[in-house]
Amino acid sequence: MKLEAIKNFTAGQARIITKNKFGVFGSVVLLFFGLVGILTPWLAPHDPWVSLYGADGCLAMLRPPCLEFPLGTTIMGRDILSQMVYATRTTVLIGLVSGLISIIIGANFGLLSGYYGGKLDEILMRFTDIVYGMPFLPFLIVLIALFGRSLWFVIIAICCIVWRTSARVIRAQTLAIKQRQFILAAKARGCSNFRIIYKHIMPNLLPLLLLYTSFNIAWSILAEAGASFLGFGDPSNLSWGGMLYNLWISGKVRTAWWWFAWPSICIILLVSSLVFISRAYEEIANPRLKQR
Amino acid sequence: MAILEVHNLKQYFYLNPGLLARLAEGAKPRVIKAVDGVSFNIEVGEIIGLAGESGCGKSTCCLAIAKLREPTAGTIQYKGRDITHMSKLEILEYRREVQIIFQDPYESLNPRFTIFDLVAEPLRALRIGNRWELYRVVVDVLAMVGLDPDEYKDRYPHQLSGGERQRVGIAQALVLDPELVIADEPLSMLDVSIRAGILDLIRNLSKRMQFSCIYVSHDLSILSNISERLIIMYLGKIMELGATRDIITDPLHPYTRALISAVPIPDPAHQRPVPNIKGEVSQDFDLPTGCRFQGRCPRVMEVCRTEDPTLTEVRSGHFTACHLY
Amino acid sequence: MKRILLEIKNLKTSYRTEKGTVKAVDGVTLYIKENEVFGLVGESGCGKSTLIRSIMRLLPQSAQMTAEMLRFSGYDLLSMTESEFREKILWQEISLVPQSAMNALNPVYRVGNQIMEAIRAHREDDKVERVRKTEDLFHLVGLQSAFMKSYPHELSGGMRQRAMIAMSLVLEPALIIMDEPTTGLDVLVQERILRKLKLIRQTWMERSGATASILLITHDISVIAEMSDRIGIMYSGQLMEMASAMDLFYEPYHPYTLGLKNSFPSILALDSDLISIPGAPPNLIEEIPGCVFAARCPFAIPECREIRPEFREVKPDHFIACIRTDHVEDFRRLAGVKSTWQS
What ranges make up the beta strands (E) of chain A? Predict the structure, then answer.
C-alpha cells in the first residue's frame, strides 16, 4: 500500500516537472550531476590530489585541455577532470544536506507557528527575525576560528541562514489553510493537532514545500561556493568553490581559463537547473502564473 | 428520554474597540451575544430542526454542541453527563458519538485525500480497527450513502460533483456510527434537483443507523419536510419551540408568523399574506432591555420593552417566549 | 396583446478552453414581452449566466456568440457596434443586476455617490437633479435617504442588494435583468425585495406609463412561481420548456420540469415525498447527440438519444423540447411516483 503511494507520488512529481521545458532541462542536468556524484570513484580517471606527469615525462603543470587531460590540469599538475568529479560529489552533497535540513527546520517552524499561533508563534517568529539579522560569513568564520575547518561547519552555517525565508512563507500558507473548513472537519472527526498539522495541512503545502526545497538547495550551493571561494571551505573535501579558491591563490586566474571555466559553468548549471525545476512548482503553488 | 440537554447556553464574543473609538466613546468593549441563554432537549431518535436567519446563533450553537468551540456559559449534557468540562480522552470518546455534517461540500473535504482516505480518517484518527476492519467499514459506509465503493474509493474530491461530495461528507460523519448527528445546512450549496436525494438519505440513514439529528437551516420549506420538532431562533434566543406541524399550522410568536408568511410557495396561483413585521434585522450587539424582537414586533406592548420573556409552554409541547401568552 | 420586447432566436455561445470547446449556450430561442416578468430557471452550469452576458455583450475574449436573431424593441442587437450598444442600449434600455451584486459596490465610495455617478455618466449633469433622482430611487427600493451617505460595508446584504437594484433603475430601462437577486439573503429580506420589485413596476406604470419587464434568473422555483408571468426552464445550455407560469405549473410537459417540481419541498405540503432526479447535469464540453436530458430522463426511448428535439409550440405560447409530448398525461401521472425516478 505504501509502496504504491510512493510510486504514485514520484510519478506525479515527474509529470509536474516534465510538463514544462524548463523542468525537463533542469531535471536532466540534475540527474547528470547526481549520477556523477554517485559514480565518482569509477568516473574519475586519476586521484585528484596526485600530481601527475604527462606523456612527455614532465610535471603536467597548467596544461590546457588536451587528449591526455580533457579538462586540463592545475598548477600542481592535478587532473581537473578528476577534481571536478570529486568536487561534484562534495558540492551536490553539501547542497542536498543543507537544503534538506533547512527546509525541515523552516517547514516545521512555519507549520507550528502558523497552526498554534499565540505565544508559540510570537517566540518562533521573533527568533526567526533574530536569525534574519545574522550574517552568513562572519558566523562561519567564528565557527572555524573556534572549532577549525570542517565540512560540517559549512553545512551548519548554511542551514542557519537558509531556513529563514521558507519559515515565513510556510507560516503564511499554514495560516491560510488553517481557516479552511476541512481542517475544522478534521478536528471534529477526532484528529489530534499533530495529525492535523502533518497529515492534513502539510500535504496541501506540498507544492510550496518542494518549491522551497529546490530554492534552498540552490542557495546552499551558492553559499557554499562563495564561502569556499573565499577560503572558508574544507580543504580536505574539494568543492567547486574550493577549486576556484585554489585557482585564485595560485595567481593564475588570467591564464588558466580552463581551471576557471569548468567549476564556474557547473555552478551556474546546477543552480539554474534547480531554479528551473522550482519554476515548475511555482506554477502549481501559484496557479496564476500558468500560461493561458 | 433526552440524548442531549442544553441548559442556558451562552456564547458571547468580546470585541475590543479601536483606539480612537475608545477615546471617543470611553472604553466600552462591545459584546456580541451570539447565543444568549438557549435551552432545549433532543430526544433519542428524533430529527429536530434549528431554524433562524443568519446571525441568529444557530451555527454557533452547533459548534458548541460539537465541542468545536467552548461556550461562555451554560451546560450541555450528553446522555446525562456534562460535556462542558472534559478531559482530552473524554472529548475523543464524545467525538465517537457526536458528529457533524458540514455545509460546504466544496470546502469540507481535504483535496489531498482520496475518498477512501477521507472516510477512513475518523477511524484512523481515533485508532479504531485494524486494516481489514477499516476497509470493510469504509466500503460499507460508502455503499450506504449511495456511492459505489469500487468506483469512488480511489478518486479525489475535485473529481466529484457537489452532491457526491456531500455524500462523502455524510459518510465521514457516519463512519463512527454516532448517536447524534449535527447537520449544518447540508443542502444549501447543492443544486436543487439533487437536494431531495440527500435529504432522503439523511432521513433514511437516521432510521437505519438509529441516530438523533439536529438539522440546522434557514429554509423552512426543507425543515418542514424533515424535522419532527422545530426550534425558531432570533438574535441568540429561542422564540418558539414545538412540533413542526404545530408551528407551521399554528405559529404563536409574531416572528414565527412573519417567517412562515415570507416563505415563497412553488405555486403561481397561491396568494401569500404579507409578513407582518417592521424594520430591518437588528444587530446582535447593543441589544435593548426587554424582548429583543420589540423593534420589529407588530404587537409590541409596554411590558415587552422592560422584561425579557421566558420560554413557556402555551399548548402541549408547544413553547414560546412572548408576552402575548 | 402585449408586444414582444426582446426576441432571441437560436443563440449559441461557446468558450474555448484548454480542454475543448464548452458550449455554454446551445441554441436558445425565447422572447420576453413588454411589462412582464420572465423567469429563467436552471441549475448551476445550465448556461443562464452566459446567456445574460451574451445579451449584454459582456463576454470574454475566448467566447464566440452566434444567433439567428437578437432583437430588442426595434433594435437589431447583432448588427450594432460596441459604441452604439453602449450609448443606446446599455443601462438605458437594458440594465443588469449581476449575481452577488451586493458585493459589486465599490467599497471606498459612498453608496449615494455611486448611483449619482451612474446618472451622470448617462444623462443628468445638474447636481441638484441627480440628488433628487437618487433620493427618489432610494425611496422606490425602500431605503431611507439617510443611507445615501453610507459606505457599502455599513449596510446589510439586503440593503446593498436594494442599492444595486436602485442603480439598475437609474435610467428607467425597459428591461431589467436580475441574476439570482435574492440568493444568499434571508427569507424575510428576500420577501421584502421581491415585494418591492412588484411595487416598483406598478409605481412606474402609474407615474409615467413606463413599463418595465424583468428577466429574473434563479434556481429557486418557489421564487419564480411567485414572481413570474412567464417561465423558461433551462438545462445544459438549452431551453427545455417555456410557458406562462400557470401553464408550466399546472400543465407541464417536459420530464425535467416534472422532476424539478417534485424536488421542491413546500411548507404547505408537510408530508409530501420528495423525489430527486438521479444523476448529474452533463459536462458541457461533450457532444451529446439527441436530447441533453435523455440520460436522466425516466421516460427516454432510444430515439431520444439520437435526434435532438425541436423547440416547438405545442399549445399557444407553450413551447417544449421533447419528442414524446403525446404521452404527457402518463408522464404527469408517473412523475409523482417515486419508483419512476429510481431506475
Answer: none
| Torsion angle of the four alpha carbons B126, B131, B136, B141, in this order, in degrees rounded to the nearest 10 | 30
CB atoms within 10 A of CB A272: 15
Distance CA B256, CA B246 (A): 12
d(CA C292, CA A164): 56
Q: In the beta sheet, which residues pair with residue B238?
A: B233
Q: For the segment C22-43, what is each residue's pLDDT rounded down to a tens digit?
A: 889 999 999 999 999 999 998 8
For residue C302, what are the contacts with CB-CB under 8 A and spacing of at least 6?
Answer: none
Distance CA A271, CA C166 (A): 59
The CA distance from A153 to A146, in Å, is 11
Statement: residue A36 has pLDDT above 60: yes
What pairs with residue B77 in β-bridges?
B5, B82
C-alpha separations of B209 from A67, B45, C160 in Å: 82, 10, 45
**Strand pairing of B98-101 and C318-321?**
unpaired
The number of CA neighbours under 13 Å toward the Cβ of C166 is 31
Is 0.85 exceeded by the ipTM? Answer: yes
What percent of chain B clears pLDDT 70, i.e. is strictly above it?
94
Chain centroid, CA C120 distance in Å? 28
From chain C, pick out residues whose CB is under 8 angstroms from the CB of B272.
226
- Cβ–Cβ < 8 Å for C116, C145: no
Buried b (16+ CB within 10 A) or exposed e, A121-149: beebbeebeeeeeeeeeebbeebbeeeeb
CA A223 – CA A271 distance, rounded (Å): 11
Q: Which domains does chain B have, with CATH numbers?
A: 2-17+30-320 (3.40.50.300)
Side-chain-side CA neighbours of B258 within 13 Å: the count stands at 25
B268, B269, B275, B280 alpha-carbon torsion, rounded to 10°: 20
For chains A and B, CB pairs below 8 A equal 56
Which positions 49-78 of B are in contact with C (Cβ < 8 Å)? 53-54
Searching chain B, which residue's CA lies closest to the CA of residue C265? B221
User: Measured between alpha carbons, how far is C138 from C147 in angstroms, rounded to an integer?
Assistant: 9
| B271 in C contact zone (CB under 8 Å) | no
C238, C321 contact by CB (below 8 A) = yes
* Edge-first strand listing for the sheet containing C175-179: C94-97, C175-179, C213-218, C37-41, C230-235, C238-244, C318-321, C311-315
Residues in contact with B223: Cβ distance below 8 Å, sequence separation at least 6, in sequence order: B49, B51, B215, B217, B230, B244
Q: How far is CA B89 from CA A196, B84, B93, B126, in A?
A: 17, 14, 6, 10
Q: Which band of pLDDT confidence, cut at 50, 70 and 90, is reported for residue A2?
A: low
Instruction: Summarize pLDDT for A123-171 with one digit per residue, the tens.
Output: 999 999 988 888 888 888 888 888 878 888 888 888 888 888 889 999 9
Kindly list the residues of chain B whose beta carbon comes within 8 Å of any beta carbon in chain A: 66, 68, 92, 95-96, 99-100, 102, 104, 107-113, 121-122, 125-126, 169, 172, 176
- Domain spans of chain A? 89-292
Which is the CATH superfamily of the domain at A89-292? MetI-like (1.10.3720.10)
Our CA-based measurement puts residue B282 at a distance from the nearest CA of chain A, in whole angstroms, of 28
pTM beyond 0.90: no
Whether C190 sits inside 8 A of B275 (CB atoms) is: no
CATH top-level class of C1-93+211-343:
alpha beta
Q: How does pLDDT run across A220-258, given as a tens digit for each residue?
A: 998 889 888 888 888 888 889 888 898 888 887 888 888
Q: Give domain limits for chain C.
A: 1-93+211-343
Shortest CB distance from B126 goes to which of A190, A200, A204? A190
d(CA B169, CA B202): 11
Burial status of residue C334 (CB atoms within 10 A of its CB: 0-12, 13-18, 19 or more): middle
